[in-house]
């Protein structure tokens, strides 16, 4: 969450292309999600039910993603395995770095604002906020981005067929549900 309790908008979900700012909150821990499917996925962390079982060793997992990650233990020689999720690493240092995601530990601090991060990489990306640097530039349209993940999502937008177009304002949408909601912005005077 941002300061002031505001949840940061995920890429592709700005007020321009969606017409609801509804968030889904986990009733057990209060974590919020932009997508209901992410909340449902997250809530499996709160249950002791482990419905996904490794057919090779019998270890069980509450999330299918963790089982898939665990399968790598059997596919390659990765002797360092996370006891929380089954993720395996070839190097102990990688396992130790990974295990930070299961704790609240944030050992990397921004010298400008004091915000703490779990990884050096996340700190490095954060520091671009203070410098204004946007090191990821799109070769197709020239738009620049601060975060590699947002840049990657943007690049995929150039490959999508934008098949739903508003005759009134010319705005295009790749998903029918966004297109269906769009006319409401004309009635509300937002476009």
From TrEMBL:
Signal peptide: none annotated. It is found in: Nucleus. GO terms for cellular component: nucleus. Keywords: DNA-binding, Metal-binding, Nucleus, Repeat, Transcription, Transcription regulation, Zinc, Zinc-finger. GO terms for molecular function: DNA-binding transcription factor activity, RNA polymerase II-specific; RNA polymerase II cis-regulatory region sequence-specific DNA binding; zinc ion binding. Pfam families: zf-C2H2. Gene3D superfamilies: Classic Zinc Finger (3.30.160.60). Its main location: nucleus. Belongs to the krueppel C2H2-type zinc-finger protein family. This is Zinc finger protein 707.
């Amino acid at each position: 969450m941002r300061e002031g309790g505001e949840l940061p908008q995920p890429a592709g979900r700005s007020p321009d292309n969606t017409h609801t700012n509804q968030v889904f909150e986990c009733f057990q821990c209060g974590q919020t999600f932009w997508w209901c499917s992410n909340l449902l996925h997250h809530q499996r962390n709160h249950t002791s039910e482990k419905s996904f079982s490794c057919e090779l060793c019998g270890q069980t997992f509450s999330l299918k993603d963790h089982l898939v990650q665990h399968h790598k233990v059997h596919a390659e020689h990765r002797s360092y395995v996370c006891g929380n999720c089954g993720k395996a690493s070839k190097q102990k240092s990688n396992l130790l770095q990974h295990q930070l995601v299961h704790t609240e530990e944030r050992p990397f601090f921004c010298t400008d604002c004091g915000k703490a991060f779990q990884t050096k990489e996340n700190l490095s990306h954060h520091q671009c906020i203070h410098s204004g640097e946007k090191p990821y530039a799109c070769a197709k349209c020239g738009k620049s981005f601060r975060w590699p993940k947002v840049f990657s999502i943007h690049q995929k937008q150039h490959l999508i067929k934008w098949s739903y177009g508003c005759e009134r304002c010319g705005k295009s949408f790749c998903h029918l549900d966004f297109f269906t909601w769009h006319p409401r912005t004309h009635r509300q005077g937002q476009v």
